[in-house]
Amino acid sequence: MKTNIFDLDRHEGYQSTNNILELLKKDTDIEQVVVFPELANKKIGLPNGTMIQSKKHIYPFAVPDPGCGYRIILTNLYTSDLTDYKINILNELVDKNGLYNRIRENKLKTIDFEKLWRNGINSLEEIDESIFVRKDIPVFSNNIHEELSPNEKEEYMDNFALSGSPFLEFRYADNNFSLNEVSIKRNQIIIVIHLGTLVGKKVISGKYLESSILNTLRYGIYDESDIYKQLFFLDYDSEIGKNYLDFVNFMINYAYASRQVSSTILNRFLDVILKKKVEFKLISDLTHSSISRRDSKIYHARGLQITSKKNYPLLIGGETNTHSYLVFSKSENIYISHGTGKYIDSNKTINLNNSKYSSTVTTNREYYYDKDKETKDVTTSIRGIEDRIDILCKLNPFINYWNDI
Questions:
Q1: How far apart are CA 397 and CA 340, in angstroms?
Q2: DSSP secondary-structure letter at 42?
Q3: Are 399 and 163 in contact (CB under 8 A)?
Q4: What is the C-alpha separation between 279 and 267, in angstroms, rounded?
Q5: What is residue 269's predicted lDDT score, i.e. its pLDDT?
Q6: Strand, helix or coil at 236?
Q7: Torsions phi, psi of 184, nearest 5?
Q8: Number of other CB atoms surrounding residue 49 within 10 Å
């Protein structure tokens, strides 16, 4: 097994990941593992920033959140347009009966979800294509072979187009620059919708967990203690393995559609609050959690984005109180870090000597932070991949909404 580790001496939690890498060596089907700079441990599955390449084995819990991704939207707003509305925007987002959710409820009534399950994003014909340039983003096929149960459908609909699941950010450019012939000015607002597929983890556990464990035990590669660490796999050549990859593709498709509808809701939301027409321009939309089969290989990528296009704009996300990077990909079909995205809640701040209260960013969470550490974290996300990207600008934080669902 070939292993490539970026900045291993800088990895927080590297030792636990190193233990997993040693276990993965037991499976000769795994050809390569790449660990990226911003490695972050997760409660379920492999850490963010990990890529596994295998020949026939599919590890469902290597990526238990397929479809999770960023949507980046350029607006015609500037920081001065939002300064007096920041608290109102957050209050309306937080309130379950607030403006966003009221618009969402009406919007969902117009969507034929049965058609969405069958045809994916292409079924969303009511979306205004003059606002969202769909030719700029990948459109996934939708080939799910297993019928969704009524309970699964209900959960998918309940989680569809939720605002900021897990977070929604209003950031602003730190300088003037041009992006694919689009002019962006200093202090212009760029919105980042980070929206995933929370219900997907439950479906994976319900539909595929038992089969994966039984299949793994049959091979005798991993023992029960290894499997307890979520090292279990399906075979691509099996019917359930191929159905599982179809399910992953469905989840990517579902999450993309969910972000797209969330964008239209948010656009209307801002129109009403600001009492003016707010223009949205889609910059990019990419998943950073996927399992895919290409060139007879199976790639598991968690917390890593990939684009088939050179010069496609990407986000290297910072934390709540630090800048993100807007970058271009220099090459096609290579994995790139998605950023830090870690959150330190108030219960952990007692161990931080230099913690500060966030006063520069308006957020619905009481957030303490170590500015030096957070700046280092987002800088570390760039280390090791600088030859893969061109940095366009920094996106400074302005408003941050966390959806605590």
A1: 14
A2: -
A3: no
A4: 8
A5: 98
A6: coil
A7: -120, 135
A8: 27
Question: CA–CA separation, 83 vs 78, rounded Å?
Answer: 9
Spatial CA neighbour of 383 closest among 110, 139, 35, 52: 35
The token duo for 151 is: 């309970």
CA distance 330 to 370: 32
Burial of 193 (0-12, 13-18, 19+ CB in 10 A): buried
pLDDT digits 0-9 by tens, 113-164: 888 777 766 666 655 443 443 444 445 455 566 677 888 888 888 889 998 8
293 CA to centre of own chain = 20
The number of beta carbons lying within 10 Å of the beta carbon of residue 302 is 27
Nearest to 303 by CA among 108, 88, 40: 40
The pLDDT tens digits of the residues spanning 176-218 come to 988 777 789 999 999 999 987 777 777 777 888 899 999 999 9
- Residue 257 DSSP SS3: helix
**What's the alpha-carbon Rg for the chain, to the nearest Å?**
21
Neighbours of 248 (CB within 10 A): 26
Token pair belonging to 53: 């390449």
Sheet strands (E) in 249-388: 280-287, 289-294, 297-302, 304-306, 313-316, 324-329, 335-337, 356-357, 362-363, 368-369
Question: Cα 34 to chain center, whole Å?
Answer: 19
